[in-house]
Specification:
Structural class: alpha/beta
Largest sheet: 7 strands, mixed
Mean pLDDT: 86
CATH class of the largest domain: Alpha Beta
Helix content: 40-55%
CATH architecture of the largest domain: 3-Layer(aba) Sandwich
Radius of gyration: 29 Å
Number of helices: 9
Number of strands: 7
């Protein structure tokens, strides 16, 4: 065998060895990935095999220590698994979860999450009285009950709420909206043409909110607000009366739907800045 043939044979041998090592390396990666995927499937099957409690009257009462408890934890679980940590057959898990969690935490007299039908009617009034306005400011937005209905009608929505967990859920559910954590008393950046809100009903805070609302509306700007029935007729305290004197009532409609765990009479009011 001459030198050229020997060199050619060595080259072929080296090539075959390199190909074999490459194949073995690729197979090892496949095996590793396969093992990882297999472990993930096992973990998912293990998780699925664990009994889930029903949300209503069960989950927050019987949940295991490692089950999600806060809204943030439930959202993180939903992001990771595409599923909820409890059995649920409804169509609005954020709303029902907050109501159920508040019930288990003893909240019975100040639970004012906007019922679905009320949120829908408020959004329709925003469309009716908003003129050509395309952007709505959802003040005290919570998890986005009203935002959801506004989006269905084609509005662009910006929003805020003082509760970071509520804003986290809002931004998870409606990522194309801009919701931020803020107290209404700290927002004075611009006057707006259309504001919608289910505001705090605490007596002192409600007076401050109406004052903020009056100052935040542009001239002839309008607001759709959920308020205790007769609130716009009050002449005391003086600060409230002064704020209301700068607002014209365009529409009032009594709310027949009940808040979960909370009584009281409420109405939807459409106001215009004078």
């Amino acid at each position: 065998m001459n030198r050229r043939q020997e060199e050619s044979n060595r080259a072929c041998t080296n090539c075959r060895s390199a190909n074999r090592r490459q194949t073995e390396s690729h197979q090892a990666r496949l095996n590793g990935r396969g093992a990882k995927e297999e472990n993930e499937v096992k973990e998912e099957n293990k998780r699925s095999a664990v009994k889930k409690f029903a949300l209503n009257n069960s989950y927050f009462k019987n949940r295991r220590p490692d089950d999600p408890e806060t809204l943030s934890e439930i959202v993180a679980y939903h992001q990771q698994h595409g599923d909820l940590p409890f059995r649920y057959d409804g169509d609005n898990w954020p709303y029902d979860t907050v109501c159920e969690r508040q019930k288990r935490r003893g909240v019975y007299h100040c639970q004012f999450l906007t019922p679905d039908a009320v949120a829908e009617r408020m959004a329709q009034l925003a469309k009716r009285y908003g003129g050509d306005t395309e952007v709505v400011f959802d003040a005290c937005c919570g998890t986005g009950q009203i935002t959801k209905e506004l989006l269905k009608l084609g509005f662009e929505v910006t929003a805020f709420d003082i509760d970071p967990e509520m804003v986290q859920v809002h931004n998870y559910l409606y990522p194309n909206c801009c919701a931020r954590v803020a107290d209404f008393r700290d927002i004075d950046d611009v006057q707006r043409s259309l504001i919608i809100s289910n505001p705090p009903f605490d007596r002192t805070i409600a007076v401050e909110f109406i004052g903020w609302l009056t100052g935040s509306l542009a001239p002839d700007g309008r607001a759709v607000v959920l308020l205790p029935e007769g609130y716009v007729n009050k002449d005391k305290p003086k600060a409230l009366a002064e704020s209301l004197s700068r607002l014209k009532v365009l529409h009032r409609a009594r709310v027949t739907e009940k808040f979960v765990h909370t009584g009281g009479n409420f109405e939807i009011v459409v106001l215009e800045r004078q």
